[in-house]
Amino acid sequence: MGPKLTRDHALFLDLDGTLLEFAPTAEEVAVPAGLGAMLRGLAAQRDGALAILSGRSLAQIDAVTAAPFPAGAEHGFVLRDAAGRIHHPVRQTANRAAWRAALEAAAAAHPGVRIEAKSASLVAHYRASPEAGPALGAMIGAMIAEAPEVERLAANMAWEIRPRGAGKGRALEWFMARPPFAGRVPVFVGDDVTDEEAIAAAAALGGHGLHVHRDFDGTPAAVLAWLGSALAPGRV
């Protein structure tokens, strides 16, 4: 279980697998009742020092949270600060169009595989066709072998081509250097390999990097109960 949350903590939260149960597609994910209100309460409790760090796009994050919180979208490629300003710390990939065409051709041969084009990265989702995962991973590895500006990211039932220099760990560090996060103790919660760098970054800054399966009971419900307890009367 996580630490007792106080007003001095800055909260950084992943979405899928952390606050939300997984579903075949992002559009099918069920948003827990009252999630937006709880997040608004937690943010207000610490003067706005709550950010969402997710692989989702900003629009998808906002649809889930029902409010434009500070966010590191697309694994930190798109950053929105507390004033609502958008920042792009790294550039888009050079071979995006060719890679997308190749991935969509591969998806056509594997029913259930879905290709998602984000603003800078490309994702091959194979949750509905798990047997296609190894072949897609090998294909992407070969495809980007001579493109040092990008990397292949293994996500939960997905492979992602993303620009180097982004990442949830860097996003957390970026927020911690700015108000209202600066001077607080960071607490990050995530569930996936893509979250490990943010878990490490929070710990390196003197805070808490928490994993849904290592520090809770492996379910978003446990994380939500822990977060909700911080809003109980008498808890600060």
Automatic annotation (TrEMBL):
Keyword flag Hydrolase: yes
The keyword Hydrolase belongs to this UniProt entry's keyword annotation: yes
Molecular function via GO: metal ion binding; trehalose-phosphatase activity
Catalyzed chemical reaction(s): alpha,alpha-trehalose 6-phosphate + H2O = alpha,alpha-trehalose + phosphate
Transmembrane segments: none
Pfam family, one: Trehalose_PPase
InterPro entries reported for this sequence: HAD-like_sf, HAD-SF_hydro_IIB, HAD_sf, OTSB-like, Trehalose_PPase
Pathway(s) of this molecule: Glycan biosynthesis; trehalose biosynthesis
Any one GO biological process: trehalose biosynthetic process
Cofactor needs: Mg(2+)
Keyword annotations of the record: Hydrolase, Magnesium, Metal-binding
UniProt-listed Enzyme Commission number(s): 3.1.3.12
SUPFAM superfamilies reported in the protein's UniProt record: HAD-like
Source organism superkingdom: Bacteria
Function according to Swiss-Prot or TrEMBL: Removes the phosphate from trehalose 6-phosphate to produce free trehalose.
PANTHER family: TREHALOSE 6-PHOSPHATE PHOSPHATASE
Membership in a protein family: Belongs to the trehalose phosphatase family.
Protein name (record): Trehalose 6-phosphate phosphatase
